[in-house]
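Please produce the structure of this protein holding molybdenum atom.
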Amino acid sequence: MDTPGSFDEKEFRRLVRRKTMKSFFLFFIFIALLYAGYSWLIAQPKDDKALRPFRNILNANGSVFARSFSSDNKAPEYSKKAATPRVRVNGDAGMTSELDQAKWKLKLVRNSGSSLILSDTILISLDELKAMPKTEVVFNFKCIEGWSQVTWWGGVRFSDFAKKYRAGTKSGAAPDEKNKQEDIYRYAGLETPDKEYYVGIDMPSMFQSQTILCYEMNGKPLPENQGAPLRLIIPVKYGIKHLKRIGTIFFSDDPPPDYWAKRGYDYFAGL
Ligand SMILES: Nc1nc2c(c(=O)[nH]1)N[C@H]1C(S)=C(S)[C@@H](COP(=O)(O)O)O[C@H]1N2
Ligand SMILES: [Mo]
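Below is the modeled complex.
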């Protein structure tokens, strides 16, 4: 710098000024774009509590996962010894009203198979379900709140149940490998007896071999706060879908209303 002529201070200042102006200009454009984008976003209508662009992203993710879902894929299973003896109790929506456990029966709304009668509802007792083959599953139960625990459940495999009671098809035929794809409803809906908690679940997940209508936990009758007399255990889904205290099961080609999806969460909620 002490060599005369090697440093033109004027030129240097001009350069610095130009760069500074450019940076400021870009900075303001950036802020303006950010502001415009944010204003646009928060002005969007909401779809079940989630802003529409976010809901669209959730649904797009959901359909990608639904398409790549295979009923042959299993959630990892653990040994019974790995199951925690103290199972967390979480969520009591639809569980606060009185329920006479002895009088309880499962309401199954199915298609009669006749075009004259749209649906017939049958009542199924817990004893009838217990008389069916029992399936047990030990898996890592995950809640969207961020906790998880290895838990052990027992009950009737949903696919066995659907076959026996000819549920989930439009023709009223027992669902098995021979069904035509169009004959199987796209969704199952489950709700508590008081209808305060309800979930909608895609049928491939319902028919997955680890999905059970559950009446046992840790080899003992299901405690009331864990959903007695009957709850859903569906290891391919997050906790929100494991509805406790099932009152009614029905089927539909449209997605049934879902308690947490209405409150802004992902409908598919797969793991
Ligand atoms: N009826 C009913 N079922 C429910 C809920 C609820 O609030 N009501 N909460 C869900 C949520 S968010 C979780 S994580 C699990 C918790 O099951 P647990 O209490 O057996 O741990 O239940 C699910 N099933
Ligand atoms: Mo949860």
